[in-house]
Amino acid sequence: MAIADRDIVAAGPRTRVRPFTQADVDTWQTCPDYPDKLLVGTSPRRMAPGQRARWFEDITRRQHQIPFAVEDETGEMIGRIFLRHVRAEEGSAVLGIDLHPAYLGQGYGTEALGAFLHHYFENMGFERMLLSVAAHNIRARRCYESLGFKTVGSHWDAHIGPDITGDANFAYVRSFFRRGPLGLEALFYDMRLERAAWPAV
User: What is the CATH number for 55?
Assistant: First the structure.
């Protein structure tokens, strides 16, 4: 489906951001799982074709999420940006972002999010953006920090994915995991970007 230029809400040299539609769910479902054991728990939720319309309706109507699609320079959808826990009265929302595995580590996420922040603050009128990032996801943390996000707290939550604590290849992130009430738990950093601080980045 061709996307008109008027549908684009933000654009960078290699990326553009537009509203995520129900038709995009099928494309998102074709993305492969992340091969990295640390990220496999954040792979796309797999749904049968009959479930996809109900899922889209649930996130947009019941949960009031605001989803966006990220495209590359060829117009191929390579990821999503979505706003959760939107609180208009407080001028805040919680960021979620994911990219196709083939586009990780190449600056696409940072570029797309950086462009989207202009739309978020200037056009949508929000005052702050919040997010929670796994402490072991060092690449994502660096992306957010480069865009001006500050760590304001931390919490432990259930780790979704394989248990890597006994794998010597992941010894460098072992301190970010623990055994707790939820089983294997991962440390998450709570981050925030204020509108007043964003233009200075």
Answer: 3.40.630.30
- Which residues make Cβ contacts (< 8 Å) with residue 59, sequence separation at least 6? 65, 67, 82
Q: 2: pLDDT confidence band, cut at 50, 70 and 90?
A: very low
Residues 6+ apart with CB under 8 A from 37: 161, 162, 164, 167, 170
The strand ranges marked E within 36-182 are 66-71, 77-87, 92-99, 128-134, 150-158, 177-180
For residue 188, the tally of other CB atoms under 10 A from its CB is 20
Average pLDDT, the chain: 93
**Rounded alpha-carbon distances, angstroms, from residue 81 to 116, 140, 163:** 9, 14, 28
Cβ-based neighbour number of residue 88 at 10 Å: 11
What is the number of domains present in the chain? 1
CA dist., res. 104 & res. 96, Å (int): 15
Domain membership of residue 70 as a residue range: 5-200
Of 41, 79, 83, 81, which is closest to residue 59 (Cα–Cα)?
83
* pLDDT tens-digit series, residues 46-99: 999 999 999 999 999 999 999 999 999 999 999 999 999 999 999 999 999 999
C-beta of residue 165 within 8 angstroms of C-beta of residue 180: no
